Amino acid sequence: MSDKVIISCAVTGSVHTPTMSPHLAITPEQIAEQAIEAAEAGAAILHLHARDPADGRPTPDPKVFDRFVPRIKAATDAVINITTGGSTRMTLAERLAYPLQAAPEMCSLNMGSMNFTIHPVARKITNWQHGWEKPYVEGMEDLIFRNTFADIKHILQVLGRERGTRFEFECYDMGHLYTLAHFRDEGLIDGPIFLQCIFGILGGLGADPENLVAMRTTADRLFGRDGYRFSVLGAGRHQMPLLTMAAVMGGNVRVGLEDSLYLGKGQLASSCAEQVRKIRRILDELSLEVATPAEARTLLALKGADAVNF
User: Fold this and answer.
1) Beta-ladder partners of 8
2) Would you say residue 258 lies in a domain?
3) N or C terminus: fewer CB in 10 A for the chain?
4) How far apart are CA 116 and CA 6, in angstroms?
5) Could you count the other beta carbons within 10 Å of the beta carbon of residue 99?
6) Are 261 and 21 a contacting pair, CB within 8 Å?
7) How high is the pLDDT of residue 191?
């Protein structure tokens, strides 16, 4: 089982806007439907954000999360992973509002403050569906995604220690691995570590194969090959090539319309499940087995779906 590949699916995120794809899940119903379909296609972990159903802007409102998270739990046994990143415009209290209420098995946790932007994309779009979209995308150029040491410590304490939540540690740069090792050394993180290495975001590591190898070997030095589970997220057009490379290297993979809106060159993905099915075909061709949700829970030492508050 230790050799099985965990497929994560990030359903909607907070980066892409409705104008960028008609297939992006916006309403609670759409988020639930895409998440359930992705789980049926083979995703063991569902990484979830919420959006205002009126216009698609990211929202931290627990009432919106409550409209789709319980429905997903009732329809699938996939691990539900709630973001603590929210969006670059949310306060830490807003980002934690639903995770603290829900006490999920897993949450994402960004391991450092950083420039995080897709503002060049705005130059390619002339007609926006909603008035908030253009300033939202262009405004990323002058924002910092805040994740201070104090912020990270707080999340590890109130979610990890107090609620038994484990984490998808999102690392966008080499220094984030050392930050993760610092908190491990401080005794705030127990193994196994689920390490999500992210490539291709402007402000983070580029999507070069050499960077993937460097992150893997650095993680080996810091945590030991048996001390962590390695996963890869490739943004945009880098998604499938980097995930294939990660799988060959013994890693796990993450897909979903949060990370890439496309299935192939010039072809928008019609759903998150379509991406799940594609990476699963690739894994099958590599003779790699896909982990079930139950197996993912065992590999990551999760507390179980019966120990959450939704």
Assistant:
1) 45, 254
2) yes
3) N
4) 26
5) 26
6) yes
7) 82
Supply the pLDDT for residue 2. Answer: 65
**299 CB-side CA count, 13 A:** 27
The residues, any chain, with a CB within 8 Å of residue 285's CB and separated by 6 or more, are none
* Residues 264-299: tens digit of each pLDDT: 999 999 999 999 999 999 999 999 999 999 999 999
Range of the domain at 103: 7-307
- pTM (2 d.p.): 0.97
pLDDT above 90 coverage of the chain, percent: 98
Domain-located, residue 2: no
The total number of structural domains that make up the chain: 1
SS3 201: coil
Q: If you search the block for the tokens 């705030």, which residue do you land on? A: 188
Identify the CATH number of the domain in which residue 32 sits. Answer: 3.20.20.70
Percent helix / strand / coil, the chain, rounded to 5: 45, 20, 35
pLDDT tens by residue, 89-115: 999 999 999 999 999 999 999 999 999
212 lies in some domain? yes
Query: How far from each other are the two terminal CA atoms of the chain, in whole angstroms?
Result: 29
